[in-house]
Amino acid sequence: MLNDSLSAIYDEIVIDNPAQPEFHQAALEVLESIGPAIDRHPEFAKHKIIQRICEPERQIIFRVPWQDDSGEVQVNRGFRVQFNSALGPYKGGLRFSPSVDLGVIKFLGFEQVFKNALSGQPIGGGKGGADFDPKGRSDGEVMRFCQSFTTELYRHVGELTDVPAGDIGVGHREIGFMFGQYKRITNRYESGVITGKGVTWGGSLVRTEATGYGAVFFAEQMLAARGESIDGKRCVVSGSGNVAIYAIEKLQQLGAVVVACSDSGGFVHEPNGIDLDLLKQVKLVERGRLTAYAEQSGATFSTESIWDVPCELAFPCATQNELDDTEARALIANGCRFVVEGANMPCTTAAVETFDAGGVAFGPGKAANAGGVATSALEMQQNASRDSWTFEHTEQRLAEIMAGIHETCLNVADDYGAPGNYVVGANIAGFDRVARAMLALGLI
Description:
Number of domains: 3
Largest sheet: 7 strands, mixed
Mean pLDDT: 97
Shape: globular
CATH architecture of the largest domain: 3-Layer(aba) Sandwich
CATH topology of the largest domain: Rossmann fold
Helix content: 40-55%
């Protein structure tokens, strides 16, 4: 619940940011947690840290004209929201999807501020993207779009200013086209300007796997804190993109049985476990649908809710607000005891409340899926030192970072009288780190 002061701040956010429900939701979720931190540190309220932290430092919206294969001119809208740089250069991915608008980018950027702070790396928070859909587009069309997008974006980014990365709809292909255009325009091989690059041209090993692996490492710590192991647990992972696939991979490596995954058309149910090699072939190589996976594997394909599948651990790894309170109740009724967010805010506010009331251990995205940006920061370190690390070394660093985030969340939650509440721990810990840096830098 919000006190009168925080309630007034939230009302101002809603008024000042109309028609941006995702941003409102993300802001409310943080404000509901940080009241005790404000009471303990009145200097945060005196210097209006909350109001300042909820207002982006810069919002950039631009036109992206490009030509498709038929010669038709297309026009999309591009965004970059540079939210907070108190801890370092803005850092956050680019999302290419028809669902992208300013409110979505602001919610993602706001979450990124706290996620990056929790990672312990010297990076601020930002996010960007465009309402462009790369699905069904040829490589030539994607290249022309990325080049046009970068022709505007390049003036706003740099390895000491703002470092984008990938997100939904932006993989190695798109990162390569954007980096190539940046290099062409600036005449500089500035490796650290963007992360998620191919390993042969400045990228980091483990970056592809990092978000999915990191979520599983966080889940492993959650279970260990309760004297349990992932080995043998039945898991459901929504999505079948980069995050979901590598969450499945790490879960299987640790002995779990992943019985279902999904895409926008429905989900497949494999009681004996997902065939990961086939899933990678269909989704990563062929860029196909799960219906093709089901046809080849014999798995059951359904257009109903994946959250009706019984499991002990659930990993929502698709997109925001994909899991509501009705589905949360179904998970609890079917024996789910751990929910770990691999995507950004995939659970609605009501779903999170249902998990809390049902005694489900809940790992929020700003903590559990921080592995991607943490490894991006490791990629930046390698670029800055003109070095490259082994897969094993980088994965170990990632595991250590996720363990550190888990420990921080638990310790802060205990300190503020909410033992075991990862939402409270993550929000207060992230907020505190950014707020202290903002105080130190003065009124800017």
